[in-house]
Amino acid sequence: MPRSGADARRRLQEAALELFRERGYEATTTAEIAARAGVTERTFFRHFPDKREALFDGEDAFRAALTDGVLAAPEGATPMDALLLAFRSVERTIENNRPITEPRQAVIAQTPALRERVLTKTAGLTDALSEALSRRGVERGLATLAAQVGMAAFAYATRAWFYEPEPGLDAHLTRAFSQLRDLSCGRGDPASRAPGG
Amino acid sequence: MPRSGADARRRLQEAALELFRERGYEATTTAEIAARAGVTERTFFRHFPDKREALFDGEDAFRAALTDGVLAAPEGATPMDALLLAFRSVERTIENNRPITEPRQAVIAQTPALRERVLTKTAGLTDALSEALSRRGVERGLATLAAQVGMAAFAYATRAWFYEPEPGLDAHLTRAFSQLRDLSCGRGDPASRAPGG
DNA sequence: GGCGAAGTGACAGTCACTGACAATAGGCGT
DNA sequence: ACGCCTATTGTCAGTGACTGTCACTTCGCC
Questions:
Q1: To the nearest whole angstrom, how far is the Cα of A103 from the nearest Cα of chain B?
Q2: Rounded Cα distance, B153 and B129, in Å
Q3: Is A194 in contact with B142 (CB distance < 8 Å)?
């Protein structure tokens, strides 16, 4: 019964998250996910290329938002400025999605196979950022380096915000880019400690 | 027949690389690898946790070298200085291993599953660097950021050297860290182009 | 010359994932 | 209302990665 298509997909995602939380990722079979969603195992693989992908969705929209953010930066902006603006443009989205992201992260944290997939997802975003920078006129190799470094800072800020949501993601992002500057240009402290706040 | 144990392991690795090059990774079964190595499929999985790992080996030694490099840096060195020294300490190893690395990279480049595994391997090295920095007194979060940024620069340098081995890995590494500094502290060009040489 | 440990073969089984074909529901024009 | 077309799903059969178990062989050692 082809109810709506997107409906089955959503149920599959919910079922997957539920089961992964109940029994863990490894102990859950794709057949069980399909059964809880009220479809066949075959249908699961029509909606997701593999078992892991049931946990990752909406990445396309996120990538597009980041890309747009980079391209929308003022013409005089340096690569790192453009990246920072792009990250700021998705702050709200990330903060709003926290209730959805939080349980997902818990599952990912204790599943090596899922952590591995997160890395490729992040790499995909990094590539998109790199290409966006390149389209702004940044030399290809430099764009790659900038995208990777910026993404590292962004991931660092997000992780910090996840453990300590208090000051808001924006503050963590500012702090991360500030620390990044201190690290790379680090004139001062040979003791290699960052300034307090 | 337990000839030597390590012997079978080495033959399995060679067989795997050969077959991956001949038919591609996906089109090669673990049974075929085992057969060419003169053992059973079961033995393959006694030596490697999964099919991908047959291509990745000696990573432990590499990680130890990087860690030692960080810890051996002079006491006054900044985190980025320590990382650069660590990377320099493995330059020779990488350059010498090029004949072995080159065919492997060709297989990896055209196999998404292997590229994904590379990312987790790199993440493992980054974690090791982060912990080494942390043991030097660098605050944990900052150490993570520094390790990721440094690893990005290192990967960038290595990739560039791979395509253009001419000036040597050392030059590429110097250049990468220089570009990194320009990016983060980017005083000059808003046009975001890097200085020529 | 037996003896324990390490390495291996053989066998059976689970599970992720795929290809092919039939069946059904819903939208659309007539 | 009727048939048509398309998208979605069910069904079936199959491949291949990976695991558990047990028996066997080889090696080092006393």
A1: 22
A2: 13
A3: yes
Contact (Cβ atoms closer than 8 angstroms) between residue A141 and residue A59? no
Comparing CA positions, the residue from A122, A125, A147, A113 lying closest to residue A20 is A113
List of chain A residues whose C-beta atoms are within 8 Å of the C-beta of residue B153: 145, 149
Taking the C-alpha atoms of residue A62 and residue A14, their distance in angstroms, rounded to an integer, is 20
Confirm whether pTM is higher than 0.85: yes
Please say whether the beta carbons of A70 and A132 come within 8 A.
Answer: yes
CB contact under 8 A, A193 and B149: no
pLDDT digits (tens, 9 = 90+) for B59-88: 888 999 999 999 999 999 999 999 999 999
Longest dimension (CA), chain B: 67
- pLDDT value, residue B101: 93
d(CA A32, CA A22): 12
pLDDT of residue A195: 42
Separation in Å: D23 C1' and A195 CA: 65
Would you state the structure tokens that stand for residue B68, as one six-digit string?
């030692």
Q: Is A194 an 8 Å CB contact of chain B?
A: yes
